[in-house]
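Teaching note: in complex prediction, the entire set of molecules is handled at once rather than each chain in isolation. The prompt given to students was simply: 'Predict the structure of this complex.' The entities are:
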Amino acid sequence: MRRIICVLLENQPGALSRVVGLFSQRGYNIETLTVAPTEDKTLSRLTIAVNADEAVLEQIEKQLHKLIDVLKVSNITESAHIEREVALIKVKAKGEYREEVKRLADIFRGQIVDVTQSLYTVQLIGTSEKLDACIAALTDVTKVVEISRSGVVGLARGEKSMRA
Amino acid sequence: MEKLSGASMVVRSLIDEGVKHIFGYPGGSVLDIYDALHEKSNIEHILVRHEQAAVHMADGYARATGDVGVVLVTSGPGATNTITGIATAYMDSIPMVVISGQVHSSLIGNDAFQECDMIGISRPVVKHSFLVTDPRDIPAIIKKAFFIAASGRPGPVVVDVPKDCMNPEILHEYQYPEDISMRSYNPTTTGHKGQIRRGLKALLAAKKPVLYVGGGAVISGCDSQILALSEKLGIPVVSTLMGLGAFPGTHPNSVGMLGMHGCYEANMTMHNSDLIFGIGVRFDDRTTNNVEKYCPNATILHIDIDPSSISKTIKVDIPIVGSADKVLDEMLAQIEANSLGISDPAANDHWWSDIAQWCGRKSLDYQTSKEKIKPQQVIEVMHKLTNGDAYVASDVGQHQMFAALYYPFNKPRRWINSGGLGTMGFGLPAAMGVKLAKPDETVICVTGDGSIQMNIQELSTALQYDIPVKIINLNNHFLGMVKQWQDMIYAGRHSQSYMDSVPDFAKISEAYGHVGMTISDPAELESGLEKAFAMKDKLVFVDIHVDETEHVYPMLIRGGAMNEMWLSKTEKS
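The expected output is the structure of the full assembly:
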């Protein structure tokens, strides 16, 4: 099952490599990983999407906690949460396809953020499933030239916070 | 405030941390530290012959004392040579600080001479590591390194210091921090009271309980608590390879070592128990055999200071995260306060009669011969001559198992071996580290003709610093454990396990300035060893030619349960 784990990490040189190294060292698969500084400059926030069963997930959380630079670990998939991913999708948009690509982008509430005579770049924000669906739909009607996806970021809904 | 250079700060921080011994080897990137060390005489530096041995010495020192072992090496090859030693310490949770020199900050990343990404290369085998980027941080980093190495589940910590951060020309204000706090590192030591109560209730209700003690019990120093618990409740104790000595091996409640080469009664006790109380163990594959068939009727209660050790390989029913000594203190206090005892004494009697029956199989018996010395016999004679009270460091292989099985340890920290990583070449330097920490004790290195040659150069260090350990070499001209597997699993095809040109070890020892002895007649074994142990101030290398056909038994059958063992070359359980 796919889970989203959020990690607050000391913003130290080499700290990220400890997290990434842990995953490869212990044979856990990372699906996506995002990292950026937080409102507190001394901390980074990581969002890691993994495919793991209960037992493996428990080990991942414990092993992450064990890293000295890790301040907090939270599996946000356990309860209500918001997750988002951004995709930039460059597609062929010539002739008959040009209108269809625009229509599809609208349906998925995407925006066309770059245009050439033969290409559109669609920007899309949503859950990973929504991005998958949009890419599949675009692939059906035209040639997808290039895709860049950000990986998932997420937060628990409501009062819950990792900084409390 | 006092002003010191970066190099002097490293040395002063070590002095202020109370360090007495450093094991190391100089080189370009650490010459400033070595120069600072030269001025201060209150730390003894042991110059090894290979950096790997420095780490094993610091490791042996740490295992015997519980103190943090300290290593100092240069950048590049000096640093990479420490990796096997660091990994050995990491697998067995040994507190250690390794200070490595690094090239000038401005050269990092340029493939400079003797540059190596020490932080990167050591990352999977350290508890934590620091790269110094500002010399003013040195005291705080060293304080943190010692704190992290020794607290919680101990482990090795690397401090990588670039050359420019040591510059003897530039002085900075020095003050060693009194204590350190880290928001992201607070190991739990006292167990959850409710869990302890639940655990105790299950233990008292059990009809066939067993205490299963490991390296964590030795580290937390809970030997007196285990003894009290076992004696108060009448519970048998089995030990892992790493736990030997945490409970007295000659105590009537001791059922011996379990696992791949554990004795029959210990493995049978585990398999048939209805409650396993793991204390500082990690259910390592060498102690569980096939996890699918693991101890089918047992409820599992487990204390460990490292939450990630709990339910990693075997699902635990009642986990208690904490330091074993504190958790057991609390359990014993509850037993005392409420005058608790086991709920079914009749069942307990029955359990002990089962165990007595398994002990009756005498799984450690072996045949002696008039022509050839048996390796088991060597360990038994060694035990007799040292009154079972020596510090025994071993290498890895058959001799390690013979030492573990035939030398019952009654005190913790006397058995020094690489259990987790299984590092050949560990024994001699580790024994030397122990002897430096315990100069008045008898320290033995039990080794084999394969292992000893992996760090034999340290005989030179032993002469320089007068470290009179006794080396007992069980020489069978084979890589014995490899050969045993080839005999049992590969139809006796001895692929690359025979050493055609084993040297004359006695002569090697003499060439290094020590005493060398060779024994091959069983009739001379005891008198020869007696003579060796009588030379208290000398390093004596006793090369003992033993029966090369001997196997270590029992041996768990691969893929089986804990009760499935080979008891001899022809007999299964």
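Point out the following to students. The two ends of chain A are 28 Å apart (CA to CA). Chain A has a mean pLDDT of 94.
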